[in-house]
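Student: Hello, beginner here. Can you help me understand the protein record under this note? Any guidance would be welcome.
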Amino acid sequence: MSTLPEPLRIALALAAIGVPVLPLRAGKAPFGNCHRCANSACGGRPNMKSAGPCRCPGVCHAWAAATTVPTVLTSLAWMAAWHRAVAVAYHPGAAGLTVVDLDDAAAVGWARETLPATRVVPTTRGEHWIYRGAMVSRNAVRAGVDIKSTMAYARYLGTGTGTMAALPDAVRALAVKEPSPVRPAPHAVAVPARSGNGECRHRTPAYLDRGIAMAEQRITEASSAVHTTVYRTFLAVLSTHGRCGCLTETHVTRLFTAAQAKGESLRHCTDAWTNARTRLGL
């Protein structure tokens, strides 16, 4: 083990206790998308803070690349990254944890006055407060405060001090946003018309409306990985209805509205729709 890069030795120790890990390059950033995943072709978001359903063997997808499997961490596909890594990151949500990232002294002071005491890890400018329990991640919940849990990664900076407490309602409440007005899809979606004569079977209300309603329900009931669920749902709808000219702007607006009600932005909806069409060759 002494010949392994220091970041990898740390990563293997964390993986052994069930914490999914990944390497970080200079600038505290994950390694870049590979050619297979360029331009979010797999459904991931362009900023790489989260990722879509991808089976790429490389280290390219931030939190989604985190793993506890030693054979993956030490595989040839990962070793080059570990030799270049400057730090180790982990996926808190997958380990059943939430990190309250306090970015400056003012944020630390607020936490000490407001939140229950828990495990504290010093950072360059502030502190990480770590709680037992996972929740949705959210940046800038207040000045200098980010929440990192599901679909996010945090830099590993040591074990810290103090006893880890259960995730309190006060932290969960920070991630609750006031609902914003839902905007419809900006344009009608151009879907290739069905070739040949005759009426498309999908135009029957019972078939098409049931499919759209099921898609809306799938998005609405998603309790985690909302972006991935939206992408996969769009992909399923387009694989069934995308080549016959059935889908109208009204149908697409219904899907976008369901996704935005779950917190997706209009841009993310548009990206997911475009990526799904690209994957299907539409």
Summary: Confidence is low (pLDDT under 50) at residues 45-53, 186-198. The longest strand covers residues 97-102.
